[in-house]
Specification:
about 260 residues, 7 strands, about 10% strand, globular, binds zinc ion
Length: about 260
């Protein structure tokens, strides 16, 4: 086969790249996938993306692959319609529209995590709101809306597999940092990759603690963070959360060489 052919399988109408991304940031994104797997937030499914650091109308995300296996060479760039710029034959996640539509609707969001983490799912199935059980989950104090795909689309396979469903999800999410998806999972976002990963991890941890607390209290009122405490604690977390990222990132670095 001629050499030129193996260079790219992109069609002529693939969107243009937003420009080169530092290798260390690509490595951080690949590491984020592995961190979320190690923390029990994602398993064979789920994904994390980050907005292109210098081209706000592009984002980066792994090819369709189990998160614990992602390496930098698996990262694909997309436009905000979730068309790949450089797939070169690599398959895309069906639910990438979650990411593209949130980036479109929320200019301040720089990273998005979608997961099916098990402790969170019950809160999308019953009418019990998720509340901030402890300071690390203070971002939950702002409220966690629930997206029910049936409301707009009737019976579906539950997947956010096109732009229209992504828009509907982003609308329900509004200005919040976390949204639950009925009978499916959740989405967490943040103004940095580190913040989105932190929130995804602590959404799952908070859900576990709320289940334990509800069982322990057996119907007694729960002394969760109030809105003012939530605001104050979240501000601290956005700085101190870097310590968690540093730990998780260091562990990945010690396990894999890219
Ligand atoms: Zn999903």
């Amino acid at each position: 086969m001629p050499k030129a052919k193996s260079r790219s399988t992109e069609s002529a109408d693939s969107p243009k790249s937003g420009g080169k991304v530092p290798a260390e940031r690509i490595a951080d994104l690949a590491a984020a996938s592995r961190i979320l797997a190690a923390q029990g937030v994602v398993d064979g499914f789920g994904h994390v993306s980050m907005r292109h650091p210098t081209a706000p109308d592009r984002y980066l995300m792994a090819r369709a692959l189990a998160p614990a296996l992602v390496t930098p060479k698996d990262i694909i760039e997309y436009d905000l319609e979730s068309n790949p710029c450089n797939a070169a034959g690599r398959p895309s996640f069906l639910e990438r529209f979650i990411h593209g539509e949130i980036y479109k609707a929320r200019p301040e969001v720089m990273a998005v995590v979608h997961s099916h983490s098990p402790s969170v799912i019950p809160f999308g199935l019953v009418d019990v709101p998720m509340r901030a059980m402890f300071h690390n989950a203070a971002f939950i104090g702002a409220g966690v809306p629930v997206f029910d795909i049936r409301d707009k689309f009737g019976a579906t396979d539950l997947l956010v597999s096109d732009g229209e469903k992504g828009v509907a999800l982003a609308e329900i999410m509004g200005r919040q940092d976390v949204v639950l998806m009925r009978a499916h999972g959740s989405v967490a976002c943040g103004a940095s990759l580190e913040a989105a990963v932190f929130r995804a991890v602590y959404t799952e941890v908070n859900a576990r603690i709320q289940h334990w607390t509800a069982a322990l209290g057996d119907g007694a009122p729960i002394a969760a963070l109030d809105p003012e405490e939530s605001k104050l604690a979240d501000k601290v977390n956005l700085g101190a959360g870097q310590r968690a990222w540093h730990l998780w990132r260091t562990l990945v670095r010690s396990q894999v060489k890219w």
